[in-house]
Design a protein that fits this description.
heterodimer; A: about 350 residues; alpha+beta; Immunoglobulin-like; 5-stranded mixed β-sheet; 12 strands; disordered N terminus; B: about 350 residues; mainly alpha; Cytochrome Bc1 Complex, Chain D, domain 2; elongated; Cytochrome aa3 subunit 2 (chain A); transport (chain A); metal-binding (chain A); transmembrane (chain A)
């Protein structure tokens, strides 16, 4: 193994200089195969996971994945036949006469592409209602979640059955499995794009208008959503958590959230209020009602701090409080490094305890 | 006849600076103030100075300067910063000062020869090669304009008027030789703060906030020519005493504004903020029961002071303690009418909390 590795990596530059193009050498060939396998493996790795459109957890994403694989397989077949024909043509001794050549061009260059492209277009158009289902009246009866993309986080509001706001959360979208959900997307600042790859296609979030997107999760699990439209320096830190829950668990969660009490840790809450955090942040069950920044009710159970910037531990929370824009460039929250360290740690512990 | 060749010109270009340096090195140029300027030098320097100020003032536009509230802070600063050289209606220029070259003018005679804009130019930037310093900070044009408003009234001011305006301590002392005393109370004394005052009331403010502010002035983190001049030479122990003194005073009395709708708008903003414009509620931090003592008490401050501070915050030049950036962020999106409403509300607010 060790020898192979040496042959493969260290000798390659010299060989490439001396025998350009001669890769039939056994050792080189082996290292090429290995590289190829590794590449294929890494590509396959990205086919699954919490943020892969090729590992669908909902019908729209499934259709997108099937469309993708159909295109890949079809494209591969066509590519192979073109290469085959090219190979055959280069080996053929006698040239075609003009009449034969014209017929080949007509069939292979006009008729065949027209049929293939026509079929693909029809297939894609036929898929479209499935990928963007439920436009118009049908949406009115769906469970609605209002999502606002803001620099650089997601405001998520759940509605009651009556359509009034039930509670607000941030950077985490929870949906019941097996139920179609309507997302109403707005933005107060710049254009964002709301994308949960495992559930479906993306939808732009545009200031001054409300875009609608319906999605359905079929497999319970925790997934990852992203902002798919560059929106500023911390665009990359807008990755939110998506949790698809069994309907019963989901109902329990909404009930728990609607009656969330952030006042159990009175000492932590007092410090949170003392330093004025409530000017921007709200916590249910307390007098903190700021709506400029993310609602922090249930913050402790969220997947990350700073929307995908840090893991959600007490130390991470404290780090973020001390200097948000160091972790997340362009973050609107001012730094609080001037607070006593004990207060920062205590507030971080309080926030981690909001579960 | 010798023709001038380029070699001669070149030689001259090389020799002249060397000759200049030699003359400087020889010590033959007098720098004695005692001998004064030649009349022609004196005329030339003044002519250059007047031309320079006139040209620089072309782009300056004076705001209205008839507000009497502009006068007390400027008078106090004049006493602590300017009177030493220029004298004042209560005190002539000293003999020592008159020995300066050029001697600082008695302003009574020269103010009339400058326009407001030109005075602004001189006060803000100072005059090179004279003893006239620039305003201690370059970001507080409002203070400089207050000084211009004061200077305009200076020529006709009696000693008594001046003493009253600057709030100088007037207790009679036999054979006192130094200038009359200027104290914190000269400007900040509660009885001196009219409803139109630009000067903050310090009474009942938290000790932490007062000390933070004083240190911010001393360290130049809260730009103010007036306050930096006033406190920069005072030792920290004494500043701590000042802070403790004012913190122990009763909080100022509020006086409700006449315009109820304005106050109501201010109250709405103070209590709830306006999330759509990312304006947080003022009362989330200020005057909260158990709140951070670094956040100042606002109720009872006068409208003009509150408005000025909010504008400075909005413009990003207010500065202050290590907490001031929070307020800069909070005030960034206030509109003019928001500032008016908030000032009216807090000026008339019943004091609660710390």
């Amino acid at each position: 193994m060790t020898d192979d590795r040496l042959t493969g990596s260290e000798c390659w530059p010299i060989r490439s200089r001396l025998f350009i193009g001669r890769i039939t050498d056994r050792a080189d060939a082996r290292s090429f195969y290995r590289a190829g396998l590794m590449l294929a493996a890494s590509l396959l790795c990205s086919c699954s996971g919490p943020q892969s459109a090729l590992d669908p957890a909902g019908p729209e994403a499934e259709d997108v994945a099937i469309l993708f694989f159909t295109m890949v397989v079809g494209g591969a077949l066509i590519w192979c036949s073109v290469v085959g024909i090219l190979f055959y043509a280069s080996r053929k001794k006698h040239a075609y006469d003009a009449g034969q050549a014209s017929r080949i061009i007509l069939w292979c260059g006009v008729v065949f592409p027209t049929i293939v492209l026509g079929a693909l277009l029809s297939y894609a158009v036929w898929l479209m209602p499935n990928i963007r289902p439920g436009f118009g009246e049908a949406n009115a009866r769906l469970r609605t979640i209002d999502v606002a993309g803001e620099q650089f986080w997601w405001r998520v509001r759940y509605q009651n059955a009556e359509g009034s706001a039930a509670f607000e959360t941030a950077n985490e979208v929870r949906v019941p499995v097996g139920e179609r959900v309507l997302f109403k997307l707005t933005s107060p600042d710049v254009i964002h794009s709301f994308w949960i790859p495992v559930l479906g296609g993306k939808m732009d979030v545009i200031p001054g208008r409300e875009n609608h997107l319906t999605l359905m999760a079929e497999k319970p699990g925790t997934y990852r959503g992203v902002c798919a439209e560059f929106c500023g320096p911390s665009h990359a830190f807008m990755a939110f958590t998506v949790v698809a829950m069994e309907p019963g668990a989901f109902e329990d969660w909404t009930k728990a959230r609607a009656s969330f009490d952030g006042a159990r840790d009175a000492e932590g809450l007092a410090l949170f209020l003392k330093h004025g955090c409530s000017a921007c942040h709200a916590i249910s069950g307390t007098e903190a009602r700021g709506t400029i920044g993310p609602d922090l009710s249930g913050f402790g159970e969220r997947g990350s701090v700073g929307v995908g910037a840090l893991v959600n531990t007490q130390e991470d929370i404290a780090r973020f409080i001390r200097n948000p824009s160091e972790i997340k460039p362009g973050a609107r929250m001012p730094h609080f490094s001037m607070l006593p360290e004990t207060d920062i740690q205590r507030i971080a512990a309080y926030l981690k305890g909001l579960q | 006849m010798m023709t001038i060749r380029w070699k001669h010109v070149l030689a001259l270009i090389v020799i002249l600076p060397i000759a200049g340096l030699l003359i400087g090195w020889s010590g033959l140029i007098g720098i004695r103030a005692s001998s004064g300027h030649w009349a022609v030098t004196d005329w030339f320097l003044h002519w250059v100075m007047r031309s320079s100020v006139s040209t620089a003032a072309i782009t300056v536009q004076a705001p209205p300067l008839d507000n009497p509230a502009l006068l007390p802070p400027a008078a106090g600063h004049f006493e602590s910063g300017c009177a030493t050289c220029h004298g004042s209606p209560a005190q002539a220029r000293s003999t020592a000062v008159l020995g300066m070259l050029p001697p600082p003018p008695d302003l009574k005679g020269v103010i009339g020869s400058w326009t407001d804009e030109q005075l602004f130019e001189i006060v803000k930037h100072g005059v090179r090669y004279t003893g006239m310093p620039a305003w201690p900070v370059q970001t507080r044009d409002d203070e400089v304009w207050a000084m211009v408003a004061f200077l305009r009234r200076l020529p006709d001011m009696s000693s008594g008027q001046y003493t009253a305006m600057a709030g100088l301590a007037t207790g009679r002392q036999v054979a006192r030789m130094s200038a009359q005393a200027i104290t914190c109370d000269s400007c900040h004394g509660e009885q001196r703060l009219g409803e139109d005052s630009l000067i903050p009331s310090l009474s009942g403010q938290s000790k932490t906030y007062l000390m933070n502010s004083l240190q911010a002035y001393v360290q130049g983190r809260r730009p103010s020519g007036i306050m930096q001049q006033a406190v920069s030479t005072i030792p920290e122990d004494q500043l701590r005493e000042f802070a403790a003194h004012y913190a122990s005073q009763p909080q100022p009395l509020h006086r409700s504004a006449a315009d109820r709708s304005l106050v109501a708008r201010g109250q709405e903003l103070a209590e709830k903020g306006r999330a759509a414009d990312t304006i947080p509620a003022c009362l989330s931090c200020h005057e909260r029961e158990g709140g951070n003592a670094a956040y100042p008490h606002l109720s009872g401050q006068k409208v003009p002071y509150l408005e000025t501070q909010l504008r400075l915050f909005r413009g990003g030049v207010r500065g202050g303690s290590s907490y001031s950036h929070i307020m800069t962020e909070a005030a960034a999106h206030l509109g003019d009418e928001d500032i008016t409403a908030l000032a009216a509300y807090f000026a008339g607010r019943e004091s609660v909390g710390p």
